[in-house]
User: Fold this.
Amino acid sequence: MMEARSVPAKMDYDDVDSVRRRWLPSLASSQPGGRQRLPASRAMEYVPGPVLPAAAVSPLIRQPGTSFWEMPSLVLAPTCAADQWIISFTHDCRRLAQTKNIDALLRPPRVNLKTLLEYHPPSPTHPAPRIHIADLERALDVNSAGSGAAPHPLAELITALVDKAGMANVVERLALFLPAQRVVAWLAQPTRESYNALVLNYAPRPSQLTVPHPQWVDFVLQGPLRDAIIERQDVYATEEFQNIYANSLRLLNWPGRPVDAINMDPTTGEVWLNDTFAAHALRVENWRMHETFVRRYPELRGFVELTES
Assistant:
């Protein structure tokens, strides 16, 4: 059990330690068959940005004998709004976990996803999700009481992320909730259960555990693509990449309409995913990238499965 003092009351990103530059072997050179090869030299120089101060991530610092599911993703201080929202949310979850069981918060039996049905285009004044510890505590109380009509903090966070990325397709917005929820649960509470809940392709890869990178990269569905982003952060760790990636994602083989993916309570207006759609969305083979993605990043063609639809 972690001691309460191991988590600070506030994350301070201004107090960061400098780190030495180091050489990383090119990920492309280790890929079998040369199919997934980036146009880079055999080795590339990686100059890490500022990392989170040790005090900010102390609950997840690697100790001798740490289980593999407790190995934290090695992230930089926030590089964009999405990073800030994710890190703030998971940090508050860890603080709350010191005094309460947060399983019902991170893995509720169902979540009201009404906010995901409406796309709000990003703008310079795009509001941050208004999620505080009090909201997390409210969600725990709501779940224990058996009512889910109020907006759930997980839904608010993930809605803000897909809105910020410019994702407008309703089916993909709904489907992304499930893998994103599981990644958030593992980041906030890295237990055997939360790790096992990650579908194989969504589990953290060695690059995520050893190379500092923006937090949003952990939410990219394709493991090889996460490797490529982390290797060439100067090229891919940008908001432009986030937007093109989000708008190129396609959920294939779903025969129904968006309304066929959800259940709705006519009394409360609560909307949640039905089991058939949930199982479909969690199968990585049902996800593809539209051709527009490799038109912009042709060197990444070997890292993703494509569709023209």
Summary: The chain has one domain: 81-300.
